[in-house]
Amino acid sequence: MARWRRVAVGILLLVASLTSWFGSVMVHAQGDELLAIRLMQTVFGTLDDETPELRWRFEARAGDRIAAVAQAMDGDLDAVLQILDANGRLLAEHDDIAFPDRLDAALEGVAIPGDGSYTLRVGRYRYGQGQTSGTFALTLLPAFADPVLWETFDGARQWPTSNPDLMEATQTDGRLSVIVRTPNTLGWVAPQDGPIVPSRAYVQVEARVTNEPDYWEYGLIFRQSGPSSYYLFSVSSRGDWAFMARTGSSTWLRLRDWSEHPALADLSAGAVLGVLMDGDTLTFYVNGEELDTVTADALSAAGGVALSVGTVDRQRVFPVVVFDNLLVTAPLPPAGAEAQPVGATLEAWDAADSAPLVAELAALGVIPEGGRQVMLVPDSFTTVSRPGMQVLPLGQGRTQTDFVLGATVSMESESAENACGLFFRRVDESRYSLAFVDGLGGVGLAEWQTDRFDPAFYRTDPGGFAGLTRARLLVVGVGDRVRVYLNGALAAERPNPPLQGGVGIAALSYDGRPVNCQFDNTWLWVWGE
Known about the structure:
Layout: H1 10-22, E1 27-28, E2 35-36, E3 41-47, E4 53-60, E5 65-72, E6 79-84, E7 90-94, E8 105-111, E9 116-124, E10 134-142, E11 146-151, E12 167-172, E13 175-180, E14 186-189, E15 200-209, E16 217-226, E17 229-236, E18 240-247, E19 252-260, E20 271-278, E21 281-286, E22 289-295, E23 304-310, E24 320-330, H2 355-363, E25 372-384, E26 388-394, E27 403-413, E28 419-428, E29 431-438, E30 442-449, E31 452-460, E32 470-478, E33 481-486, E34 489-495, E35 502-509, E36 515-526
Parallel strand pairs: 1-3, 2-4
Antiparallel strand pairs: 3-10, 4-9, 5-8, 5-10, 6-7, 6-9, 11-24, 12-13, 13-24, 14-23, 15-20, 15-24, 16-17, 16-23, 17-18, 18-19, 20-21, 21-22, 25-36, 26-35, 27-32, 27-36, 28-29, 28-35, 29-30, 30-31, 32-33, 33-34
C-alpha cells in the first residue's frame, strides 16, 4: 500500500483510497431511508431538488472523538454536514472547507457526550431552498479527517523488526504476528516507508495474544525519531498500563508508571489501543475507554509509529501477539496550504559529479541558480566504539547558511540500529543538525542541542541501506527549510534554523558496539561566494 500523500486537495484522494481499501463494504444511499455507517467506511448519496438531504446512523461511546468528510463528486453541489444526537439536537455543523474554492464540508474532533446512536446529516446549502445538486462521498473517521495510514497487513508493506536475532514478524491472512524469543526484552516492528505522523494525530491498533505465555505486554510506539528515541504506550497481562519515553539513551523516562485500570482487567479477547495526540497533551484509550490524559514534552516533534512486544526476566513461554487494523488520522491541512512534495524523486541522483544534480534541483526550483562547488573529499572515514557520536568536520573551517551537501555512505557495524550521517549548520560543538541513515533502512534528521538530540523526523525507507550496502545521502538547506534525499527520493522537507555553520561526517552508536562509517565523494555546493 503506497504511503498516503497529504495534499491541499486531498479529500478527493481520500475517497479514492478508502474505496480501494474497503471495496465491497461501500454503500450507496437512495431515497430517504436511514442507513448505517461505521468508522472508516465511505458511503455515497445524491442531492437534488427531490432529495435535498440524506442521513446515516452510527454508534458511538461517551468520550469518542469523531470526524467526517462530505466530498462532492460531480455537479455543483455545496454540501452542509451535521452531527445530531438521538433526540435530533445539533452537536456540530460545517459548511465550506475554504469558501469559495472548496465547498466540501468536514468536521474534526467532535466530542461524543454519551453512549448511543448518532446521525450524520448531509444536505445541500439551504436544503429545500437550495439550488445546487450532485453526488457526494461521506466518510466517518476517528478524531481527524485525514487518514495518514490505514494498515490491514495484506503483505503490500514490509514490517522489519528492531532485532531479527531476538524476534520474528510475519504477515498472514491480513494480520501481523510478532514474537519476541528472549527474556527481559522489548522488541518492535515499524512500517517500511511508513508515514511521519504529525504532533496532532490519532493512532489506533487492534492486538491480542494467541498463546498462553508466562507474561505479555504489547503496545504502540509513536513520535519515533530513531531506534532509541520514541514514546511507548503499553498494556500487560497484569492488568496495568504504562507510558514511557526513550530520548536517545538506554534510560527510560517513566511518564506514567505501571498502573492498574478496570478497563484492563480482562484482555483475553484482545484490545484496541488508541492514543490521541494534541501537541504535548496525550490521551490513552483501551477498547474505547479513556485511561488517562498526560501532559509530556519529552518528545514534541512529529515521528514514526511502531508496534511493540515485551517479555520479562526468566520468562519461559514467550508471547505471540497478533496485530490488525493500524490506523492513523491527522487534521486536514489548513485551507490554502501548499502540497508537500513528499516522495519526489531526482533523476540525476546517482550522477558521477555534482553538476547534473545541482542543475536538476535548480530547474525544480528547490535551490537558486548559480553557485559553485567549494569542497570535494573523495574518501573520508569516521568510527565510534562507545555509546554516542563521533563527528569529523570537513571543509577546512568553511561556514555557510545555504548549501547542497552530498555523499555516498556505507556502514559496517554488528548492530543494525547504529547509523552514519552528514552534519551541517554546525555553529560549534553544542549546536548543529544531522541527517543520518541506519542499518534498519531508516533515514532521519535531528538537531544536536548542547547534550541531546532534538529529533525532527525518522522513518524506515526501502531506498535506505542495511548491513554493508551503500546509499546516496543528499541534504539541501535553503533559508529556514531543509530537504533530505535518500537515493534520489525525498524523505522529508522540514523547518531548520537558518544558521551559518560548517559541515562534516558522523558515526552514531546507540548500543556501544563499534560503528565504521565510510563516505565517498563528499561534496558541498554554496552560493554568495
